[in-house]
Amino acid sequence: MNMTILTETADGPLVLSPDQIDELGRELDALRARITADLGEKDREYIYSIIKAQRGFEVAGRAMMYLGFLPPVWLAAVASLSVSKILDNMEIGHNVMHGQYDWMREPGLNSRQFEWDNVCPGEQWKHSHNYLHHTFTNIRDKDRDLGYGILRMTEEQQWNVLRLGQPLYAFILMVAFEWGVMGHDLEVENIVKGKRTFAETKELVRGQWRKAGKQVLKDYVVFPALTGPLFVHTLAGNFTANLVRNIWAFSIIFCGHFPAGVQSFSEEETAEETRGEWYVRQMLGSANITGSPLFHIMSGNLSHQIEHHLFPDLPANRYPQIAPEVRALCEKYGLPYNTGSLGKQVGTVWKKIFKLAAPPRFVKKMASPGVIVMRQRKASEVGV
């Protein structure tokens, strides 16, 4: 089978041939090889500067909690802890566990050993995210990040009356995002459907209890207790910092996967995929967010989600460098480069969440993003 890409232009559909797709794949492979060969001291200095900043914000936040009875100081402490948790999860944890710094051969930055400030065990996250999501990006019934098992994020996903509560489900997932990520590997929806048994999840649950227990003890017992009479102030501050981190992570991740124009795919469409076709799927199934250098750091550079899906194991600080080249390749081959401000992308995500919650017969069909992925059968397979 070969993949044909049809891109709508003013003169009609532009066909991207299998040979062109293969050539695109070779150009992206060459880009990756060039960046990999250039990794070195600057990348090492960058990640250590982020770790130093993250630890500084955490220490400052913990220290200020001892004056948490003063509202301005409490707010500053919460802000500092929030930044610390965001950096730990987004620019450090997510990227280190992708293996982006394994080349440094340093235990503290090794993807097999690293553990983050999050209730989800790193090992489980690497299975649901690194393997399932990045291998089967936006393939319906394969990529469980496509709606996280509770949201309808494409028109092809079946509608039922429970979908009416989707905006509420999305809100709950947003404010409790780390807990949603923790439960992701349990595949609760498959347990409900009888496709999986509780017995199959015993080891996963044990790991979650251990990790979540440590996090709860740290944030809601030990550190509050260390501030003595300010226990409640510190507990509230830690809870708020976790809430801020959850909302931020949800927003960045959903803006990279579900804004207007992002496509999903069927298993049939992606069967026997070539390297070039895999690259094309990543481009069509991802979106970027524009912003300042500080914004990109705070997003873990997942504001460059297209580049991340193309090269998940390259250090994320390199994504801004290669983004213009990736965009130029999209233009060269007639592929869209989905990007926009945070406000724009967040708006289209929530519009989609509300729209796909309603019965299909009451909702106008969404406009095509302009790119159609089809599979062509070989002549011998159709008897020609």
TrEMBL record:
Species of origin: Nocardia callitridis
Signal sequence region: none
Domain Fatty acid desaturase stretches: 73-339
Family annotation (InterPro entries): FA_desaturase_dom, Fatty_acid_desaturase
Superkingdom: Bacteria
Protein name: Acyl-CoA desaturase
